[in-house]
Structures are given as C-alpha cells and as structure tokens.
Design brief:
By secondary structure, this protein is of the alpha/beta class. The protein is about 45% helix and about 15% strand. It has a 6-stranded mixed sheet, sandwiched between helices. The protein has a 4-stranded parallel sheet with strand order 4-3-5-6, sandwiched between helices. A two-stranded antiparallel ribbon has the order 1-2. A hairpin with a 2-residue loop joins β8 and β9. α5 packs antiparallel against α6. Residues about 1-25, about 165-180 and about 415-425 have low confidence and may be disordered.
Length: about 425
C-alpha cells in the first residue's frame, strides 16, 4: 500500500485530514476529561479550564461522561498523570466503553504514545481538539489550508504512534527497522505537503494584502476578543450583515469585512477569529493573514463577556495575544457584552468575609473600569440591543478622529445637519 494511502487510513478521532481530506464523524463519542492541579495552576483555575475543555468537546460533538483531576507538583514527563491515576482512568474507560480521553494540556509525543499504549483508545490533548474544531468550522479554501497546515505541523513529531502495527517486525536480514523506514517516508510526504501549503498560503496572503490596499484609506475597525463572547452577533447588529453566530466556541473562523456608516461617517469593520488560552503556537502562525486584519486595523473593539466569571483572565489572554502580534498599542474600545446574563453574589450585612470580584454589582464594575482606565468603555447586550447607540457614539468619535486626520478636506458623506434630519426620519 502506498504510504500516502496508509496515512489516510489513520484514525484521528473526529477529523482525518493528514493529506488534505477532511471528514467529520457525525456520531457522538463518549469521552472523559483529565486536568491537573499543579504548583502553577490552583484548583479554581483547574476547574475553570476543564469547564472550557468540556465546552470545546461539546463543540467538537463529543459527550463528556466524567472529569478526572490529579493534584501533582508538575505534569509527569512520561504519562502526564501519575501511574495510579492513569490506571484509575483506564479502568473507568474500559468498564464504561469510553471512546476517548482528552487532556487539558498539550501532550508530548512520548506522553501520547505511552498513554495510548495503556489505554488502548483514542487519546487527544487540548491542541488536537482545537485543531479538530477549526477543521470542522473552516469554510473557505484559505481557512481549510490554514487549518491543514497547523494539523500537519502538529502531526509531524507524533508520527511514531501511527506505526505501532510494525513493531513486531524487528530484526532479521532485510527486516531491520521497517517501522522507522515507513515513518521517514511519511515524514517526507508530510514535509512536502507542508511546503506546498506554505507556498499556497503565501500566494493567498499576497492577494489578501492587495485586497486590503484596494479598500482605500477608509478607517478600519476590528472586533477582537475571547472566543464565544458575542463578536459575530455584534457584527451582525452593527453592520446589518448575516455573519454566522452560534453559542459554540470558534463559531467564526473566516474573517468577514463589512462597510459600515454611522451618521455621516463611512468605515470598515472586521470580525475575526476568537482567541483562547493555550492557543497552539502553530495555529497562530498559520492564521497570519487573519491576524494581519487585526495588525492593520486602526481601531480595536475588544469584546468581553462580562457574564463569565473568569472574564478578567480572558481579557488578559486576549491582551497577551495582541502583544505577541504587535497590535496592543492601537486605540481600543472595551465593549463589555452580555450584561443581560450578568449575575453576582450578594453579601449579607453580617457577612464579614472579604468582598471579592464575585460580589461586585454591574455598577461597581462600571465604576471600576471607568476609574482605572482612560480607554473608552461601554456595557451592552448585543442580543437585547441594549446600549448599542451609546457604543455607536463612542465608535463614531474614535473613527472620526482618524478620519479627519486622513481626509482633512473631506466633508464626510453629507453635512451634519442632513445627517441629523435623516436620523430623525
């Protein structure tokens, strides 16, 4: 059998795409999740991260049966968890006919191989799961090529686990190292594929650079934020477009650009892919053009889900990613979304425990952010259309500052008086 065909037959959980073919298994698979409480990750964060991993699994189409935790100073270099915990997980998997195990961190090739050998079932890490969702969500040829490149780069150092069926064929004249020979052959195939994809993406990148130049000097605003914070819903509301929006992680993968007019001021607005903690570095590199939309934007609308208990950490994750792509110094508007779903823990008068952020009301959050930031902020609900006009006013003033510096003699689309008459009509 040709090694290319052999590669196509390997089982990669929900998605098989090693050689450019993406096929989604529609059957719901039962999985268990595994997380660690370590010196660098306390119990509260471990619980939050595993909840996000469960949301990722649900987005991929899996059903989570059980979650396992282990308190350990650092991940075990050989099996990620300790041998006793691994035995406990494997016994549960076999007794309950579980299809796969998902770990909330990236596994090394050695860890992956050792766990698979013991568990005898599908084993994924967070990176593999995210890549699967991206493959599922990719719509355009460009997005699919980006995802495939990231998947191949992830697969390359893990090829050894694909050829365990050859381990029996050791020793003997003419039979030395057939597994390694096959792996080397497949490594060359994948490296060639990676090279072709990079060339293909480079050409598309050049086309997209030309497209961005052809948009003229119009001010560009980009929606950025953690995944599933409501960027696409807000995009639809502001631009009256129909960008796909769903209560799933990474519902939007392809970049969408729309022309928008507020009062008498035209500009462009872009919806981009959401960020997430522990985002695979290879994925960041693969989505260069998508992130170029953020880098080349004049204004960022940082959308934040204030109803999420960990929204401050999500905000920090996005800010860190923006710094990594050299886009953190742009004029930014903080848009705190989902105020309709915001809740807080009200303290009793006789409760002497220290007040935490969980006890803050929405007004206290507003005062906090307004007090410690000179950055414009607005609290909205995109689904309920609450305070959208306030957002438009802030956005108008920010865009206007850049617009008048770029077009000093431009009198906008029409006079302000006519604009007011149109808005009244």
């Amino acid at each position: 059998m040709h090694p290319d065909s052999e590669l196509r037959n390997q089982d990669f959980f929900y998605t098989n795409c090693t050689m450019g073919e993406i096929t989604i298994n529609q059957e719901t698979e039962k999985v268990v999740l595994v997380g660690l409480i370590t010196n660098n990750q306390d119990e509260a964060h471990a619980l939050e991260y595993i909840a996000e991993l469960e949301f990722l699994a649900d987005t991929a189409g899996a059903s989570v049966v059980k979650k396992f935790f282990q308190r350990i100073p650092n991940p075990h270099p050989v099996t990620f968890v300790g041998s006793g915990k691994l035995d406990e997980i494997v016994n549960f998997v076999k007794e309950n006919e579980i299809d796969g195990i998902i770990f909330d961190d990236e596994l090394s090739p050695l860890q992956l191989r050792n766990i698979e050998r013991v568990a005898e079932c599908k084993v994924l890490d967070r990176t593999n799961l995210i890549l699967d969702i991206f493959a599922k969500r990719a719509q355009t040829a460009y997005a699919k090529a980006q995802v495939e490149l990231a998947q191949l780069q992830y697969t390359l150092p893990r090829l050894t686990r694909m050829w365990t069926h050859l381990e029996r064929q050791r020793g003997g004249i003419g039979m030395r190292g057939p597994g390694e020979t096959q792996i080397e052959t497949d490594r060359r195939i994948i490296l060639d594929k990676i090279s072709r994809l990079k060339d293909q993406l480079k050409k598309i990148d050049q086309q997209m650079v030309t497209q961005r130049k052809n948009r003229g000097k119009l001010v560009r605003a980009a929606l950025v934020g953690y995944t599933n914070v409501g960027k696409s819903t807000l995009m639809n509301l502001l631009s009256k477009s129909e960008v796909f929006a769903e209560n799933k992680l990474f519902a939007t993968l392809d970049t969408t650009v729309r022309k928008m007019v507020i009062s008498n001021l035209p500009f462009l607005i872009t919806d981009t892919v959401g960020f997430i903690r522990k985002l695979p570095h290879g994925l960041v590199e693969s989505f260069k053009s998508t992130l170029d939309e953020v880098r080349e934007a004049d204004i960022l609308l940082h959308i934040i889900d204030i109803s999420h208990k960990g929204f401050e950490e999500q905000l920090a994750v996005v800010q860190q990613t923006l710094e990594e792509i050299n886009a953190s110094d742009k004029p930014t508007i903080y848009v705190f979304n989902k105020i309709d779903a915001f809740t807080y823990v009200e303290k009793d008068e006789d409760d002497l425990r220290e007040t935490t952020s969980l006890n803050w009301t929405l007004d206290e959050w507003k005062n906090s952010w307004m007090a410690k930031n000179n950055t414009p902020s607005v609290f909205i609900s995109a689904t309920e259309k609450t305070h959208i006009e306030e957002l438009k006013e802030i956005l108008y003033e920010e865009v206007k500052q850049i617009h008048v510096s770029r077009f000093p003699y431009n009198d906008f689309l029409y006079s302000a008086d006519i604009s007011e008459e149109l808005s009244e009509d």
